[in-house]
Specification:
124 residues, mainly alpha, 4 helices, elongated, two-component regulatory system
Amino acid sequence: MSASADADFFARLAELNDKFAGSLPQTLGRLAAARNAFDTHRPPPALIEQLHAVLHTLAGSAATFGFRILGQQARMLEQRLRVLTTFDAVAPQEWEAWLSELDVFVAWGSVDPKAAYPNDETGA
């Protein structure tokens, strides 16, 4: 019975892995759409919250489904976004710098989210 339970567990996990991988293009598309709607002079709080929520979800679940680097990069973007939101005012150039990082993340994730991250010197 234990072997059957293990087989069922791993079959279900494989199904969830496939579901996660299949949802990545849509998730990355949501990030790209939010980025394209982002006004660096007056960023809408709801859009910032949306970006944070998507990045937080990716950061928390990606490694579970075999996308360790994707999760790490999402966490770094999420943390940087959280820092920016702690300030009363953020210069448009600071938002542009963060959005440029988001652009790299989305472009990379759209091609091969299990590949080495661009300019990653850790060799991960």
